[in-house]
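anyone seen this seq b4? input:
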Amino acid sequence: MDPKRKTAARYALAAALALAAAAAMLRTLYTGLEIDEEYALSLGYRLVSGDRLFAQMWEPHQLSALTTAPLIALFRALTGGTTGVLLFVRGVMLAAKAGLGVWCYRSLRGALGRPAAYLAALGVFLFTPKWFLAPDYTSQQFHYTLAAFLCWYGYYAPGARQYRGLWRVAAGAVCACLSFLAYPQSVAAAPVLWLGMILLGRRGGEARVGPLPRGALAFAGGCAVCGGAFLLWVCAGMGFDLPALAARIGLVLHDPQYDFTAAQRLAVLAGQALTAAKFAFWPLLAALALWAVWLWRRRPEAPRAVEALLWLFTTCLSVRCAQYALADVGLDFRHLYLAAAVAGGCTFWLDRRCAQGGTARAVLFWLGWLPGLAAYLMILRSTLIGLSTTFMYLFWPAVCGAAALALRRPAASRGRGLALAVLGVFFLAAPLTMRLGLVQRTGWRAVPAGTALTRIETGPAKGIWADETAADMQQCLYEALAPYAGQKVLQAVGEQHGLGFLMADGTLEVAQASVISGTDSDPRFEQYYTDVPDKLPDVILYDDAEVRDMAAFHAWIEEHFAITGRCTVTHGTASLQVLVVDGWAGDAG
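predicted toks r here
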């Protein structure tokens, strides 16, 4: 083909991919509603409403409110309420993701080449750990990690600016601290990052202060300043009562949902490993068939042959995840990230002495792949979710591994084409298919794209198109809580409706220890009102379509609270009981 036509075809393909990605994310902006997204906003709302970390907020992921709270505060300052705030937060996040994608492309195009950097940028633009756009703790952990890496890459990457602008390391440290706060288990990456900066600085001849390179000291200093400022703010919220703060942190860390030992968690994961392996069986067979053909034609050395098999398996698994998601109408298929992270580790090892892209490879390994793996192992130990779902935390190591493959940039056009095909399938096949073909609904489930959706017309989710059940519940919450502006609300339900706390245009107050889970399963329920007596509820909600057995818990409420009024509010498929409370019943308090 004529070179001009080739160039035109490449630009046309790039434009088509960009348009498809933009369409997919715009669709995500306006459709779907998930319980974890509601949880993220309700945490930020608590902080904006005056609740303080550890004092009134007892949620295990409460630190992620540090990101959502400013967005909610900004929206309230602009509009005076919370109607439509979810769409605003999603829009801000989409703009931030677009900016990160452009930054990723501009940072990596020199080392990876424009096509590979473009695919990586589209990949990070399309990815969110739980598919929705609102920045919950998992989304914050990934996006702050990416921002931190891009800051550090600008400092350590080869070129005229290498080791210039120490502010980049400090800015990266701030982003890293926000990632650690959003998901504290990811702090396991910190010592790996510091070690990596020491090694990168020494190998590259970076100026030192004593025995340590400047970059490593800037990272440690930035983290120390951020940590000190955060602790000072938290202590102020607890009246500088350090014993009380320590006790409250211990109480939050022992949230009953997460009260299991490492051995118990390992046993659960072992039981789920076989299911994950079964899912990968057919992609493995397909990869072996392609690998056999490749071996017959290339006859590589054994280590390179293993690497080729791993990347072929990643490609086939990516296609399988996309196909199975549509067939099963589900979004929870992330096995490809584990495969890519492992394949990338193999590539890093085999290319460790390769001169081409050596510095960029070292940065990707020490500040990307390895700390990402360390964070994943800590998260794997502590999270409740199933094994295959945890693979979403491997996306960042997988991206670094894919970048390591792109660094090789073979001279032969056929080799470049194969590598780009692998990267294209990995970064785009599954996310584009799922975002364009499915709509998310509560419970990490999905419905086909052609399913009729209902537009939410009131409340914080106004402007969002959701399935009928979710839309009806939002309208029902709005109608049930509208008369109680300024009141304290307790949701005595199994699955919390987080946006319910933002009804009445942001005038309600949360009156429960945690907004993450069913209040029935939290044995600290009564202790909360003993420790924080000014949080006694004025209004209690029951969900008539309850998914758990709430009889015993509701009986306790009826016995111990003075119920002065009761009514039922229905809208479509949703039905809520509203109880008006006037303190403790008799002398029970």
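The chain is about 60% helix and 10% strand. The chain has three domains: 138-254, 260-451, 465-584. kinda curious what u guys think
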